[in-house]
């Protein structure tokens, strides 16, 4: 085989509380550096805009409005409209107002399960149906919050991949943010190799996938859970009850055209508990479920 000089160059950084990597297959190292930087800039833009931890972001402005309406830009309106659609399709299982439940649920591997009284105290602050959404204006009742963390990382993956693709349409690249990833094009030399996180702490990976293109996302509770009297409480919370979903898979990995689609489907599968595989089959997507 003729040596083409092609190599896979990696650009690594941390964002959205995740290890991030952009891989570029090219014979031009300078191009790989430039494309990696382009993807990182887009990731940091989205993190800065949608983080709930900084007062400069749009989410913080919405959450601190104290019942007053807030008009949002087109990008934010698109994300909120998408979340509203998923809420309806999931029969309320997916709800961007449920982030307030983290006030009482701390999934740190301990046995500190909150009392029913604590859960019931915060539950009235959960419920998308209580929000007024007249695109592009959102009005939250005082005390309620939205949290776009359930879709923002996957959205960032897609946006970063789009930015890389626009800068170099014919150059294969893969954007991987904490295991959620999208490719811009198939590799010229073989397929992209994807390692799935292992549920066994003694193993580095739970398996390897080889894909030509598309996107992959994984949801699971390998690192975030509570364990009390032999019962494991998943960090996947049902916003309708305020409690962890009963009997969810340990992890769900989904392949789709976009990372946002893959991430949404993997999350919805986890929210279905024992019915996760049935749900995924009904959606007709390629998936890997571990119990």
Task: Describe the fold and architecture.
- This protein has 291 residues and is an alpha+beta fold.
- The chain has a domain at 191-291: T-fold.
- Helix content is 31%, strand content 26%.
- The chain contains seven helices and 16 strands.
- The strands form five sheets. The protein has a seven-stranded antiparallel sheet, covered by helices on one side. A three-stranded antiparallel sheet has the order 3-5-4, with no helix packed on it. The chain has a two-stranded antiparallel sheet with strand order 8-9.
- Helix 1 runs antiparallel to helix 5, helix 5 (149-167) runs antiparallel to helix 6 and helix 6 (259-271) packs antiparallel against helix 7.
- Its EC number is 2.7.1.180.
- It catalyses: L-threonyl-[protein] + FAD = FMN-L-threonyl-[protein] + AMP + H(+).
- InterPro entries: ApbE (IPR024932), ApbE-like_sf (IPR003374).
């Amino acid at each position: 085989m003729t040596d083409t000089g092609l190599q896979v160059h990696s650009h690594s950084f941390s964002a959205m509380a995740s290890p991030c990597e952009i891989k570029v297959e090219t014979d031009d190292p300078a191009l790989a550096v430039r494309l990696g930087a382009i993807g990182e800039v887009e990731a940091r833009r989205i993190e800065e805009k949608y983080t709930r931890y900084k007062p400069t972001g749009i989410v913080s402005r919405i959450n601190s409005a104290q019942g007053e309406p807030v008009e949002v830009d087109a990008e934010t309106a698109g994300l909120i409209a998408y979340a509203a659609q998923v809420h309806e399709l999931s029969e309320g299982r997916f709800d961007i107002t449920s982030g307030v439940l983290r006030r009482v649920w701390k999934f740190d591997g301990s046995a500190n399960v909150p009392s029913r009284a604590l859960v019931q105290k915060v539950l009235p602050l959960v419920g998308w149906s209580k929000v007024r959404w007249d695109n592009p204006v959102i009005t939250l009742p005082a005390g309620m919050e939205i949290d776009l963390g359930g879709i923002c990382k996957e959205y960032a993956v897609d946006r970063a991949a789009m930015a890389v693709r626009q800068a170099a349409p014919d150059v294969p690249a893969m954007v991987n943010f904490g295991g959620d990833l999208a490719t811009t094009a198939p590799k010229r030399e073989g397929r992209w190799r994807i390692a799935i996180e292992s549920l066994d702490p003694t193993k580095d990976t739970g398996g390897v996938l080889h894909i030509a293109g598309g996107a992959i996302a994984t949801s699971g509770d390998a690192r975030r859970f509570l364990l009390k009297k032999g019962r494991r409480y998943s960090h996947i919370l049902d916003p309708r009850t305020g409690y962890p979903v009963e009997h969810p898979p340990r992890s769900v990995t989904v392949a789709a055209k976009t990372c946002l689609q893959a991430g949404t489907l993997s999350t919805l599968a986890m929210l279905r508990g024992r019915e996760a595989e049935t749900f995924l089959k009904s959606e007709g997507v390629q998936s890997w479920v571990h119990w």
